[in-house]
Amino acid sequence: MKIIVLAVASTCLALAGPVDEMRAGTHKKEGKSLPYRWIKIGKAERPALILFLHGAGERGDCNKVQLKHGIPDLLKWLKADGQSAVVIAPQCNQGVWWADLRGDFRSPKGGDLANKPSAMMTMVFEVVDKMAKAHKIDSKRIYVTGLSMGGFGSFAAVARRPDFFAAAMPICGGGDPLTAKVMKDVPFWVFHGTADRAVPLKASSIMVDALKNAGAEVKFKKYSNVGHDSWTATYRNPKVWEWLFSKTKP
Fold first, then answer.
1. What pLDDT digit, counting tens, does each position of 99-110 carry?
2. Is the pLDDT confidence value at 205 over 50?
3. Domain-located, residue 44
């Protein structure tokens, strides 16, 4: 999957504010390592779980920079709203992707998701499964969201595990429209800027149309004259989080 990233890659940052409370972990498998941060908010016996997938500019191994976008807003909202949830934010290695998407995701047919998940996505699921078991997660309230590369990852995660997630919020991403039929029971709220030059609006539109045709519950927010950064406005909107956490699997 080739994505043109217009933004300069982020440097590792010092943790501050709510994100400095997040614990660090590393998951290792077959010579690969997946750094991740996690936190439990609230004291519910069976909390929700939200998986956050960052963009291409936050790849690396410092286990900090993936918290730059979205996570501060999410943690702030969780505490203000009195929610209880485990938040997991893995960091993708340099040079690889959350989703193994072949072909041109901007074509009318969209991309072609590989038969097997990427090594990164496989490790992400292993971390999520471990944390879900350790914290007795409510299996009916597991969510995924991500931006840019993480938007692609959000579509791919649901395609890999359509019975696992209660709802998904991909931002300026794309995917394989042929996977829509297996994702039709998962509610989606998709976001994209109309002036996005890194990942064109069409990448999301293809997925939205495919999901609607499959009978899925889909909302699509288009930000007029907004470029690649459609995540700031999205994640700072409390109604977005309220929608996500209102969804529960039957």
1. 998 877 666 677
2. yes
3. yes
Q: How would you class 133 by CB atoms within 10 Å of its CB: exposed for 0-12, middle for 13-18, buried for 19 or more?
A: exposed
Q: How many domains does the chain have?
A: 1
The token duo for 225 is 């004259």
Q: In the chain, pLDDT over 90 holds for what percent of residues?
A: 86
Residue 3: inside a domain? no
Q: Which domain holds residue 79?
A: 27-246
Q: What tens digit of pLDDT does each residue of 61-95 get?
A: 999 999 999 999 999 999 999 999 999 999 999 99
Whether pTM exceeds 0.90: yes
User: Could you tell me the CATH number of the domain that includes residue 129?
Assistant: 3.40.50.1820
Distance, in Å, from the CA atom of 58 to the CA atom of 67, rounded to the nearest integer, reads: 9
Is the residue at 4 inside a domain? no
